Amino acid sequence: MRIRVFPLPRLAPRRTALRRAGLALLGAVPALLGAAPPGPPLPITRAVAVAEYPHDTGAYTEGLFIDRGELWESTGEVGHSSVRQVELKTGRVLRQVAVPRPYFGEGIVPWRDQILSLTWQHHRGFRWSRAGLKRLGTFGYSGEGWALTSDGTRLIMSDGTPELRFIDPASFKELGRVRVTANGQPVPRLNELEYVNGEVLANVWLTDLIVKIDPATGAVTGVIDLSDLHAKAGTDGRDDVANGIAWDGVAKKLYVTGKRWPVLFEVGV
Q1: 104 — phi, psi (to 5°)?
Q2: By C-alpha distance, which of 265, 251, 257, 266 is closest to 59?
């Protein structure tokens, strides 16, 4: 999505701010997430890279997943939005389809032999054939579209608010919602999503944080801090934050990247 202005402390330049914050950043996590100071501290894990792979620095990453051993990514910005298959070890784009103007591409999710993709503010998503990346149809939804993942039965969608929607993948009919909270306080700006071992991992837009969410209750159970990886990636743009989470359920490996980052990281779990 494009840059949005929120009544939060300035978080840019990203790399400088995150390096300077250090332990102070970790102590400020509840405030960054919108949580009140009282309440038990959230468990925080600093992500550690165990492997690094090239990533397209022109990719304004919106969605990321691994399925059937294939890495897929969606990119945003009007005129530059795409759905693409990427070679993990080289970062090479194997094939892609453009999301046409005037749409701003957002998150993606696999379903059967299709890939479903969202757009930001046009209330419309696309169904693409996985084999040939042919457009098969569209679907509608209210509000903004930010990200998609799946629990194996339902799709889970973020829209920039503290709510996650549960969606029927065949009809895209909404089945329900859950409000995401940290110590009882709503967590706004939930962005890219990935379903991992019964939890939803969500990037928080304009931070380098991933929150771990219980999808049954919406409660945040922990935080993953990616600021060290952002520093290693070396990007300074205000919106070049961490975004993109992919879980390889077969190999049991977790990958993360960011908007215009030159690196895709495999991180320890």
Answers
A1: -105, 105
A2: 257
Structure tokens given for 24: 């102070």
Q: What are phi and psi of 112, to 5 degrees?
A: 50, -120
> What would the pLDDT profile of 37-86 be if each residue is shown by its tens digit?
556 788 999 999 999 999 999 999 999 999 999 999 999 999 999 999 99
Question: How far is it, in rounded angstroms, from Cα 29 to Cα 40?
Answer: 12
User: Across the chain, how many H-helices and E-strands are there?
Assistant: 4, 23
When computed from its CA atoms, the radius of gyration of the chain, rounded to whole angstroms, is: 17
3 state DSSP class of 125: strand
- For residue 80, the 8-state DSSP code is T
Whose structure tokens read 């919406």? 218
What letter would DSSP give residue 42?
A: P
pLDDT, tens digit, 9 for 90 and up, residues 96-108: 999 999 999 999 9
Tell me the pTM.
0.87
User: What's the half-sphere exposure (Cβ side, CA atoms, 13 Å) at 152?
Assistant: 5
The alpha carbon of residue 173 and the mean position of all alpha carbons in its chain are separated, in whole angstroms, by 22
Strand partners, 84: 73, 96
